[in-house]
Amino acid sequence: MSGTPGQEPAVASAALPTGFATVLMRWQRHSGRHGLPWQGTHDPYRVWLSEVMLQQTQVSTVLDYYPRFLSRFPDVQALARATPDEVMALWSGLGYYSRARNLHRCAQVVVAQHAGVFPSTSSELQTLPGIGASTAAAIAAFCHGERVSILDGNVRRVLTRLLAFDGDLAQAAQQRRLWEIAQTLLPEQPAAGDMVAYTQGLMDLGATLCSRSRPSCAACPVLALCRSGQDGTASRYPVKTRTLKRRHESWWLLLLRSPSDDGTHRVWLERRPNQGIWAGLFCTPVFADEAAALATLPPNTARMRALSPVAHSLTHRELRLHPLLLDLPPSVSPAGADGRWVALGGIDALGLPAPVRQLLVQLPD
DNA sequence: GATGCGTGGGC
DNA sequence: TGCCCAAGCAT
């Protein structure tokens, strides 16, 4: 820590920008985003689904998934009845697959223990699988107007800039401080619709004008109230010491292909362990080195082809994927392997990691 | 409190 | 290419 950190009062309450909530709500109603498919509803199921999909995921990505998922599972009962594999297939490519498992569990808890009705308070919502403090606040504020603050990446950026808050957000204690401050900035006596406009306004401001790089301070509705904006130092915030380290790894993927009776192809897929990367998804056999992959094959592997390596980065790892393609005769199956043949045309119905799906879709002849 | 967990995009 | 980030949560 540097300067005069933790012990100082967060921000003297007299210095909190009065009128912030009022200005923000007015701006949101006039200039915020209104056409997103999960807006304009107070249905907790739809809001919940969107909030979970949007965790650490960009809006443009979720736009591809949300309508499809909602069409297949229009309400919490339909989702609760689904199998885990059905849910995972629709989540495939969206990442952070524990969200999908928790989403399914949550639906089943809501149906079995809450008569199919989501709890209405933020604190009750937080007890459900996959719903943390920020998601619970978003659902409660959007659906019931509860006076509670979210704290996502957008809000962290907006509020640290507004207040010139220089605590290191890599530290949980500083995040808590910021959340307490966020609570004090809420509309004091929110009228109907105010919490929707305020909550959406925080996110809209962070997603548009108060962007990470090159913020548009000159166009900002709260410039007059914004400490860093007045100083021209907005881009210094939020303060966060970086901790992320990526390990480099090489994985060998064994792509076993076999003809079907109808002339199309099948591929050999196994279920990933239920812990770790791509947990519970279907995937080709993975090996730590080429020798290990070769050791599982019958002697005659002359026709095996090494395809071009593919780079794929995850949060904590930089993967170099080495695909090995081998065509097997129809009657042969990999010995001792716990997997199954899947028609290439049918992999849409399975949960697959994004790079594996990509490899299978563009296999050479 | 620190770490693990996907994928796509900006610069 | 590498680094950071995006409507975070669970353990």
Write the layout of secondary structure elements.
Layout: H1 20-31, H2 44-53, H3 59-72, H4 76-81, H5 84-91, H6 98-113, H7 122-125, H8 133-144, H9 153-163, H10 172-184, H11 194-207, H12 227-231, E1 247-259, E2 265-271, E3 282-283, E4 286-287, H13 290-295, E5 305-306, E6 310-313, E7 317-327, E8 339-343, H14 354-361
Helix pairs in contact: 1-11, 2-3, 2-8, 8-11, 9-11
The structure holds a DNA duplex (11 and 11 nucleotides).
Function: Adenine glycosylase active on G-A mispairs. MutY also corrects error-prone DNA synthesis past GO lesions which are due to the oxidatively damaged form of guanine: 7,8-dihydro-8-oxoguanine (8-oxo-dGTP).
Domain HhH-GPD: 53-208
Keywords: 4Fe-4S, DNA damage, DNA repair, Glycosidase, Hydrolase, Iron, Iron-sulfur, Metal-binding
Write a compact overview of the structure shown.
This protein has helices spanning 20-31, 44-53, 59-72, 76-81, 84-91, 98-113, 122-125, 133-144, 153-163, 172-184, 194-207, 227-231, 290-295, 354-361, and strands at 247-259, 265-271, 282-283, 286-287, 305-306, 310-313, 317-327, 339-343.
How would you portray this structure in words?
The protein is α+β, with helices and mostly antiparallel strands and 365 residues long. The protein has 2 domains: 13-236, Hypothetical protein, domain 2 (Endonuclease III, domain 1, Orthogonal Bundle); 247-361, Nucleoside Triphosphate Pyrophosphohydrolase, CATH 3.90.79. 38% of the residues lie in helices and 13% in strands. It has helices at 20-31, 44-53, 59-72, 76-81, 84-91, 98-113, 122-125, 133-144, 153-163, 172-184, 194-207, 227-231, 290-295, 354-361; strands at 247-259, 265-271, 282-283, 286-287, 305-306, 310-313, 317-327, 339-343. Strands 1, 2, 3, 4, 5, 6, 7 and 8 form an 8-stranded mixed β-sheet that branches. A hairpin with a 3-residue loop joins strand 6 (310-313) and strand 7 (317-327). Helix 8 crosses helix 11. Residues 1-14 have low confidence and may be disordered. The protein binds a DNA duplex (11 and 11 nucleotides) through helix 2, helix 3, helix 6, helix 8 and helix 9. Its cofactor is [4Fe-4S] cluster. It is an enzyme of class 3 (hydrolase). This is Adenine DNA glycosylase.
